[in-house]
Each structure stands twice: as structure tokens, then as C-alpha cells.
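Worked problem 6 (solution included).
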Amino acid sequence: MNKRILSLAAIGALMATLLGATLPVHAAKQKPPTDFSVYSKAPGRMVNLVPVNDTKTHGIAVFIYDPLAKQSVVTVAAIGLPTGGKFFTHIETGPCGTPKSVVATLPTMYATDKKAGATAGGINGTWQAKSWHISIYRKAGMLGMQRWSVACATV
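Solution. The predicted structure is:
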């Protein structure tokens, strides 16, 4: 358990550094995923979340597969979120913009006064060789029954 916590802390530090250094203010188009290994030979992938629906929200999502636990740890960091909002991160089948079914829902992300937020969670299995995308949603409408995407990336 301690190794997993240390791994999540290392991933969080890596994401914070990469988020501040690599993302432009207005992402024009989505960059292809970057595959990497954080420790041993465990496969990892980083994708850049690009703004959708005329928002300024962008960020990164890191997927790390743990072959011993047979699950993937997913960490998401975003900036440009409306202050004080609640955001829901879903991993869904299909490419960005064409959600078909929800594979996993990460814990709720809360925007800080600096318009930033982060969340992390685990999903069973791996993202490899699958047609998935990750989206950050915000509730909309009077009753909060509608949702609209603020950022998306094809995994």
C-alpha cells in the first residue's frame, strides 16, 4: 500500500511539473498520446486534454498500468476551470466527442480559486488496445441534470 501511495505522489509531482511547463494557453488540437514507463516495466501513457465547447480548460491525464494489481491508476490535472465548480471525470468508449458508454468515473474534481483541479482513481484492467477517451464534465441546468464537457482527450 505504501508503494502505491508513493507512486501516486510521484505521478502527481510529475503531472504538476508537466502541466505548468508544456501546455499552451489555448490548445489548438490534441497531441498524440505519449507512452512511457514510470517504474520497472509498467506501461504508462500521458494524454493532453484540450478545451471543448468554447471553454479554456485544458490539462493532462496519466494512465499507469500496475500488472500485479491488474488495474490502471489514472491521474488527471486541469487548469482553466471555472472557480468553485464541481467537475466529473469519465473514461468512456469511443473517440473524443462521441461517448458511447462509461468505463469508469473518477472522484469529483473541485476547482480552486486558482482555477485548477486534480483527481485520481483506479480502473480494472488496462487502457491498451482499446478505443477510449477521457472527458471532464460540469453539471449544468437548473437541477444539475444536464452535463457538458469542458475538456477531452482520446486515450
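Discussion: The helical segments are 2-22.
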